[in-house]
Structures are given as structure tokens and as C-alpha cells.
Design brief:
Elements: E1 2-10, E2 13-18, E3 21-29, H1 32-41, E4 47-51, H2 52-57, H3 63-72, E5 77-80, H4 86-94, E6 99-102, H5 104-108, H6 110-119, E7 124-131, E8 134-137, E9 142-147, H7 148-153, E10 162-167, H8 179-188, E11 193-196, H9 202-210, E12 215-220, H10 222-226, H11 231-239
Parallel strand pairs: 1-4, 1-12, 4-5, 5-6, 6-7, 7-10, 10-11, 11-12
Antiparallel strand pairs: 1-2, 2-3, 7-8, 8-9
Enzyme class: isomerase
GO molecular function, one term: 1-(5-phosphoribosyl)-5-[(5-phosphoribosylamino)methylideneamino]imidazole-4-carboxamide isomerase activity
Catalytic activity: 1-(5-phospho-beta-D-ribosyl)-5-[(5-phospho-beta-D-ribosylamino)methylideneamino]imidazole-4-carboxamide = 5-[(5-phospho-1-deoxy-D-ribulos-1-ylimino)methylamino]-1-(5-phospho-beta-D-ribosyl)imidazole-4-carboxamide
């Protein structure tokens, strides 16, 4: 399993939200590129970036911060938030992103996801953000009546690289991930699943591993900033 440290970008800063609420943002670093370098120097082999403003605006907003991270780090990075057309996908991948994450368009324009996955094999992931098992879109502000697994299964033959499953009610709350739902999703599809939302201790990582589900990795944010997870121990645990 891969540990993906989360760098969530709001107004050019590295922040963490509480349960996806933009007004409940804690700034952890006003230099996202320096934060990214700290994660890389600690041994992280991937970075998970989110343009929070972009998710609401429907277009990239924190591009300068992402550019700085890509310029300073040499590990692969994935980015979500406001990526909703082919031109934006192409632009980010041309800039050196390893993977784009498509969330809202997976619901609103699934054909775009399929087109992008065909055009850029291995470089397109789907962000499945759920509240009470139902997908939420547009920066988690809009609820749908689409069940997570049902949406995921629509893309079984699309060639997407990964599914990033976030339980919104757990995100930033330091209460542990939704292990059961994450494992169930991983067993229900052949696409690699990345766990996100609430990963706040080494025990959480152990619990995800212990499910035996074919998980690609886990994303953690606040716990890494707060020191609740020791980064080196976490990396060692997931590599074991």
C-alpha cells in the first residue's frame, strides 16, 4: 500500500477542512511547495493534491501553488479539484502531473472520463466522495442519489487508474476511516481503490491492511500535520 500525504490548497495555503466545510479550514503551511518537499524528504513516494477553491469554482484556482510543487518535487503527484474538461486535463498532464482526479464529471459527464482514460492510460483517477454512501459533487456541496459502488462499477471497462474513496463525514475529523465501506468497494470492483477520509493513526492503517481488500493505498492529511501519525512508521507499516 502507498501512503499519499494530502496537500489541500485553499487561497494558496496548505489547509485541512473539517468534514469538507470550507469555512472550517485550518492553515497548516503558507508554503505548499515547502510542505510537499518535507513529505518527499521524509520518504513519501507520491503526493495527493486538491485544489479546494477549484472544486467549487469548476476550474483551477490554485494553479500557482501546484506549479511550485511540481517544480520542486520529483515524485509523482495526483491532483483533483475543478478539472472538468479535456483541455484542463491535458494542460495538467503536460505540466508534469502523474494523474488527474475527476470527481464531479464522473457524475455529470461520464463520457469525458472514458475519453480521458483512453487518451491518457494510467493517468486518470476517479474521486468518489460520499456522504452516507451517496456521491456528492461540486466540492461536496451537492448531494446526489447515486450510490458509490454503482457509480464505480460504471467505469469497470474504462481503464481508469484508481478510485479514491472519501467518506466526507470522516474527513478531517480524526475519527478513523470508513474501513468497512472502503473494503466493500475494493472487493466490488477490479479498479484499484485508495482509502481517504479520517485516516488518523497507525491503527487505522493497520485496520485497512487487515481487511485483506486489494487497496492501492491510503491518503492522510491532518494526522500527518498534527503528528498523530509518525510518517516514517506509517511508510514502513504500509511497505511491510
Amino acid at each position: 500500500m502507498i501512503l499519499y500525504p494530502a496537500i489541500d490548497l485553499k487561497d494558496g495555503n496548505c489547509v485541512r477542512l473539517y468534514k469538507g466545510e470550507m469555512e472550517q479550514a485550518t492553515v497548516f503551511n503558507d508554503n505548499p511547495a515547502a510542505q510537499a518537499m518535507a513529505f518527499v524528504e521524509a520518504g513519501c513516494e507520491w503526493l495527493h493534491l486538491v485544489d479546494l477553491n477549484g472544486a467549487f469554482a469548476g476550474e483551477p484556482v490554485n494553479g500557482a501553488a501546484v506549479d511550485a510543487i511540481l517544480a520542486q518535487t520529483k515524485v509523482p503527484a495526483q491532483l483533483g479539484g475543478g478539472i472538468r474538461d479535456m483541455a484542463t486535463i491535458e494542460r495538467w498532464l503536460d505540466k508534469g502531473l502523474a494523474r488527474v482526479i475527476l470527481g464531479t464529471v464522473a457524475v455529470e459527464n461520464p463520457d469525458l472520463v472514458r475519453e480521458a482514460a483512453r487518451a491518457f492510460p494510467g493517468q486518470v483517477a476517479i474521486g468518489l466522495d460520499a456522504r452516507n454512501g451517496m456521491v456528492a459533487t461540486r466540492g461536496w456541496a451537492e448531494e446526489t442519489d447515486i450510490e458509490v459502488t454503482a457509480l464505480a462499477q460504471q467505469f469497470e471497462d474504462a481503464g481508469v487508474a484508481a478510485l479514491i474513496y472519501t467518506d466526507i463525514n470522516r474527513d478531517g475529523a480524526m475519527q478513523g476511516p470508513n474501513v468497512e465501506a472502503t473494503a466493500a468497494l475494493a472487493h466490488a470492483v477490479s479498479i484499484p481503490v485508495i482509502a481517504s477520509g479520517g485516516v488518523s493513526s497507525l491503527d487505522d492503517l493497520r485496520a485497512l491492511k487487515a481487511t485483506g481488500a486489494p487497496l492501492n493505498g491510503a491518503i492522510s492529511g491532518r494526522a500527518l500535520y498534527d503528528g498523530a501519525i509518525d510518517l516514517k512508521e506509517a511508510l514502513d507499516l504500509l511497505k511491510a
